[in-house]
Amino acid sequence: MEDKEFKNMERQLRETRALTERNNEILQKVHGSMVWSRVLWIFYWVIIVGVAVGAFYFLEPYWDTLVALVETTESLRAQFGNFTVPQE
Asked: Where are the alpha helices (DSSP H) in the chain?
């Protein structure tokens, strides 16, 4: 009877080892997928921030021109606002 029990335990141990090895392979694939996901997520945000900074860098001269135009328009409006037309 012990020989039969021993063979049964040995078979169960081999099955457990096979399942453990398969689970280990799956976990390694999941871990690799998570690592690549994190790398791509970081790359995604670097691109978004880079585009925003680059857009600001390239649009800054146009923005400065627009701000100067608005300031000039406001100063002219203030000068003409104090201008009075002589009445006859």
From this structure: 2-81
Closest CA to 12 of 28, 23, 27, 4: 4
Decide: pTM greater than 0.85. no
42-88: pLDDT as tens digits: 999 999 999 999 998 999 989 899 999 999 988 888 777 766 666 76
**What is the spatial distance between Cα 34 and Cα 39, in angstroms, rounded to a whole number?**
9
Instruction: Map tokens 């090895």 to a residue.
Output: 21
